[in-house]
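Here is the promised in-class demo. Please do not try to memorize the tokens; focus on the logic of going from shape to residues.
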């Protein structure tokens, strides 16, 4: 059963299709306001739900990164990606997945928001799989940094991280780093200086920017946002930047 409010969404529109991918342990809910804004501009919008998200945290240990890529592939086919321009817009893990997906299927452009690229420099990360046998979940304390307090209250995510799923993300990021030079679609990379999760000091933006081979690659760095950039205080600026970027690459 889905948690109320975590349902996928679809807004029909013009020939330009936007495929929205949410972040780890969250749901399409965090991408819906962006989807509504894009729909109001006339674009067709599909917000997918990744496997084991929006249900219960006990489902997450079964998830593998291949499942999440398959979810994006389903959405891409639903939007008829071979016959129309599809813009991939992913947040956090969804951004990293979208970048990788663009090496497998044709996409018109990628908008990656607060995507992880570098792996935390913690030797314990290499032992997450065996560790998960004894400690399957890691409680999440607090709600992170928010500049928009109203959205902080409404944000939906699991109360625990799955240790096994964190290991899956680590393995996936290692793969993404290996194939990043195959990313050639126009790319917009959005990050926040005050993100406590994808931290500026870990150089995700700089290293990703240098790794991809897109002829068109742009960046936006915001300040008045924590990690959940699509819902936080500078979201209007982010939305407008996304719209302007899409219009340029499809013109």
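The designed amino acids, position by position:
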């Amino acid at each position: 059963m889905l948690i109320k409010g975590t349902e996928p969404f679809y807004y029909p529109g013009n020939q330009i299709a936007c495929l929205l991918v949410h972040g780890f342990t969250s749901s399409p809910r965090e991408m819906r306001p962006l989807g509504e804004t894009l729909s109001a501009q006339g674009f067709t919008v599909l917000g997918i739900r990744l496997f084991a998200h929006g249900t219960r945290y006990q489902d997450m240990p079964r998830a593998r990164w291949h499942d999440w890529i398959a979810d994006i592939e389903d959405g891409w086919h639903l939007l008829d990606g071979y016959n129309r321009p599809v813009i991939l817009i992913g947040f956090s893990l969804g951004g990293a997945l979208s970048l990788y997906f663009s090496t497998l299927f044709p996409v018109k452009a990628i908008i990656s928001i607060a995507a992880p690229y570098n792996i935390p420099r913690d030797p314990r990360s290499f032992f997450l799989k065996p560790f998960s046998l004894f400690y399957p979940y890691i409680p999440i304390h607090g709600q992170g940094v928010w500049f928009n307090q109203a959205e902080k209250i409404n944000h939906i995510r699991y109360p625990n991280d799955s240790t096994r799923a964190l290991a899956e993300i680590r393995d996936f990021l290692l793969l993404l780093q290996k194939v990043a030079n195959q990313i050639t679609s126009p790319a917009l990379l959005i990050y926040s200086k005050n993100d406590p999760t994808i931290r500026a000091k870990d150089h995700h933006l700089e290293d990703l920017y240098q790794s991809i081979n897109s002829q068109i690659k742009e960046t936006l760095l915001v300040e008045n946002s924590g990690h959940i950039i699509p819902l936080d205080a500078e979201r209007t600026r982010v939305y407008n930047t996304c719209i302007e970027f899409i219009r340029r690459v499809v013109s």
